[in-house]
């Protein structure tokens, strides 16, 4: 299925505890037999096959194993890659050891990560950036699924461009910014931009003219 979706050139690595899955190996599909609850096993897979563009956790569905998989495999996702963990519904199902708000639940494990994702905005010493903060650029929560984006997470910077359309009473725009904006909007600076990139400027002018006449 994944080869149909991503193309046959994609290198797939599957993990399963069921020995019969080994028979599914073929060109560009490697199967590693082992228990996802075994950290040493996961570390071996990462050492031998990682790093990965995409990791999909869809194994035992035990909350404890979801935590282990995330802890062992997150660092094996390439920058720009994603890791997703599905069937989080089991965190609410007793037959999987699930319990809303209970100890050892993956759902409880990821809730503080929402804060960690924002730790670069911290103004207090007891809330500082973690390795997760620096390597996760986004968390996406869906019904029964979470997806993490991996990348280089840098502090947000304020960057003003263009001309603000209105001024708010509590504006973050300082006098220095206003001076910069005035300078950027000056006829001289506009002319300089046109001279720097005449083709782009002509293109922009053409698009504006088309919009005006309704094309
Ligand atoms: C819901 S199926 C998904 C299989 C596969 N991801 C797919 O979509 O076809 C769950 C799979 O996880 C495997 N599994 C169950 N417990 C496991 C464990 N502790 N470690 C590794 N794999 C496990 C099962 O053998 C089964 O093949």
Note the topology.
Layout: H1 2-6, E1 12-16, E2 29-33, H2 39-49, E3 52-57, H3 63-73, E4 77-86, H4 106-117, H5 131-135, E5 136-142, E6 145-150, H6 175-185, H7 187-196, H8 198-212
Parallel strand pairs: 1-2, 3-4
Antiparallel strand pairs: 4-6, 5-6
Helix pairs in contact: 2-3, 7-8
The protein binds S-adenosylmethionine.
S-adenosylmethionine is lined by residues 15-18, 35-37, 58-60, 65.
Describe the structure.
The chain is α/β, with parallel strands linked by helices and 215 residues long. It folds into 2 domains: 35-150, 3-Layer(aba) Sandwich (Rossmann fold); 158-215, no CATH class. It has helices at 2-6, 39-49, 63-73, 106-117, 131-135, 175-185, 187-196, 198-212; strands at residues 12-16, 29-33, 52-57, 77-86, 136-142, 145-150. A 4-stranded mixed sheet has the order 3-4-6-5. The longest helix has 15 residues, at 198-212. The protein is elongated and about 70 Å long. S-adenosylmethionine (SAM) binds next to β1.
Write a compact overview of the structure shown:
37% of the residues lie in helices and 18% in strands. The chain is of the alpha/beta class. The strands form two sheets. A four-stranded mixed sheet has the order 3-4-6-5.
